[in-house]
């Protein structure tokens, strides 16, 4: 076979700058056959293999000193099946390209996260999600996937074909093989009306159950050192479309959410004592707005301010309890927190290592500006989350190991047994997987 794929030896760094790796070589196969050949060569050379997407994970899930696989040449839509209402997409396709292409075809995903820089395989493998009363993560929208295993076998997995692999590989953390294509459920494109509104912390937490029940998609941000929140409710609309005006959109989404926020974060990092005052000013500056647009323009927004993040999923019924404990911890500590706390929800799903596996979940995410010491804050947050059987997002900072995770995931043993079968020699292993899955 002619070798057409690129091979380099440059260093790799993730988006947040929290992880750096120096692989022995980096390869960009242009086909499934070439990928299988890369895996066989790596095994023969005694090298580990890790695929990497856009680097938006904060953990070392993709780090390796062996062979790093970039999916840059495995992109694009393979097939649209309008009878089945599915789209099959190459694993390296960025979500922003997928969303744009689907919109041109009059189609959309049902739900998505709040950014779209990730590749489809990277996003689904780490359990990327948005918020939804009835609709779950992107991984839950997968109807089939193509996986190349350690011995170079190309395996197609769905609820009907290799169902035990399908149950695990939709959120596989790169431990079972290299995903080369994903088939997703889609639906005719629709409109969402977004209603953004400031609201007090006490009111949000008191009315949380009602706000979740009454809205298809509800989320909010709490500003530490204040009692202020910003809420967002997204619901389907008959139209007409009424997107934000170009000027107002630029002011809200670029100038305030990125430009001014960047300056505020930089000031807060340099002079932490200013953070509470900045938080009070910025949270009070928020105003209500309502707009209607196609889904990806409502669900997602640009995130240009770089940060580090920890996120835990807790049982949905414990959300308010956990949030109140988090707020009390911040108020009694000397911590100065410049980033809002993000709260979302998801219904239970059936994937072995999904953070919503078997239980309705609430997601609580904490962030700090890049370069700000985060250990004290994240340690205190993690202590609260783990006291309530919290499950850490696979792509975000946490310190949990296999002993803990096996207690909060009822199907953890099912996943690790499948890993033993598909990758007994740990071709896809690295230090992160050794910690979270054991060896």
Describe the structure concisely for a colleague.
The chain has 439 residues and is of the alpha+beta class. The chain has helices spanning 32-45, 95-104, 120-125, 163-169, 201-206, 208-214, 246-270, 275-284, 295-299, 319-332, 375-386, 402-408, 412-422, 431-437; strands spanning 6-8, 12-13, 20-21, 25-28, 49-51, 67-69, 77-81, 86-90, 107-108, 142-148, 154-158, 178-185, 187-188, 191-200, 217-222, 228-237, 289-293, 307-315, 341-346, 361-369, 391-392.
Set down the secondary structure blueprint.
Elements (H helix, E strand, L loop, with lengths): L5 E3 L3 E2 L6 E2 L3 E4 L3 H14 L3 E3 L15 E3 L7 E5 L4 E5 L4 H10 L2 E2 L11 H6 L16 E7 L5 E5 L4 H7 L8 E8 L1 E2 L2 E10 H6 L1 H7 L2 E6 L5 E10 L8 H25 L4 H10 L4 E5 L1 H5 L7 E9 L3 H14 L8 E6 L14 E9 L5 H12 L4 E2 L9 H7 L3 H11 L8 H7 L2
Parallel strand pairs: 4-6, 5-6
Antiparallel strand pairs: 1-4, 2-3, 7-8, 8-12, 9-13, 10-11, 10-12, 14-16, 14-17, 15-16, 15-19, 18-20, 18-21, 19-20
């Amino acid at each position: 076979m002619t070798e057409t794929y690129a091979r380099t030896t440059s260093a790799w760094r993730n988006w947040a700058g929290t992880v750096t790796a120096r692989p022995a070589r980096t390869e960009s196969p242009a086909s499934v056959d070439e990928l299988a050949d890369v895996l066989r060569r790596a095994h023969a050379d005694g090298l580990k293999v890790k695929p990497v997407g856009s680097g938006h994970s904060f953990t070392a899930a993709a780090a390796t000193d062996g062979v790093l696989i970039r999916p840059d040449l495995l992109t694009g839509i393979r097939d649209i099946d309008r009878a089945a209402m599915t789209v099959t997409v190459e694993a390296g396709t960025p979500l922003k390209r997928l969303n744009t292409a689907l919109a041109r075809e009059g189609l959309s995903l049902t739900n998505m996260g709040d950014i779209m820089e990730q590749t489809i395989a990277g996003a689904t493998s780490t359990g990327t999600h948005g918020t939804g009363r009835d609709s779950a993560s992107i991984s839950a929208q997968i109807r089939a996937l193509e996986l190349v295993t350690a011995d170079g076998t190309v395996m197609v997995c769905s609820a009907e074909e290799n169902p035990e692999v399908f149950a695990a590989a939709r959120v596989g953390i790169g431990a079972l093989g290299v995903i080369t294509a994903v088939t997703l459920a889609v639906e005719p494109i629709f409109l969402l009306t977004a209603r953004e509104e400031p609201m007090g912390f006490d009111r949000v937490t008191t009315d949380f159950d009602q706000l979740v029940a009454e809205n298809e998609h509800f989320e909010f941000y709490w500003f530490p050192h204040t009692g202020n929140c910003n809420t967002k409710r997204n619901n389907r609309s008959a139209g007409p479309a009424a997107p934000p005006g170009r000027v107002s959109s630029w002011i809200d989404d670029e100038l305030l959410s990125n430009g001014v926020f960047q300056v505020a974060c930089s000031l807060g990092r340099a002079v932490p004592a200013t953070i509470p005052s900045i938080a009070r000013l910025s949270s009070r500056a928020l105003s209500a707005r309502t707009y209607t647009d196609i889904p990806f323009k409502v669900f997602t927004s640009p995130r240009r301010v770089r940060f580090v993040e920890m996120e835990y999923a807790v049982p949905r019924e414990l959300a308010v309890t956990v949030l109140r404990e988090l707020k009390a911890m911040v108020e009694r500590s000397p911590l100065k927190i410049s980033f809002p706390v993000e709260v979302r929800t998801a219904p239970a799903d059936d994937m072995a290592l999904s953070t919503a596996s078997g239980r309705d979940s609430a997601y609580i995410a904490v962030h700090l500006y890049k370069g700000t010491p985060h250990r004290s804050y994240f340690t205190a947050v993690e202590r609260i989350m783990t006291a309530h059987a919290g499950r850490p997002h696979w792509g975000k900072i946490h310190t949990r190991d296999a002993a803990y995770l096996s207690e909060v995931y009822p199907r953890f043993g099912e996943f690790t047994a499948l890993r033993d079968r598909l990758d007994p020699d740990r071709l896809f292993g690295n230090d992160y997987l050794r910690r979270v899955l054991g060896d």
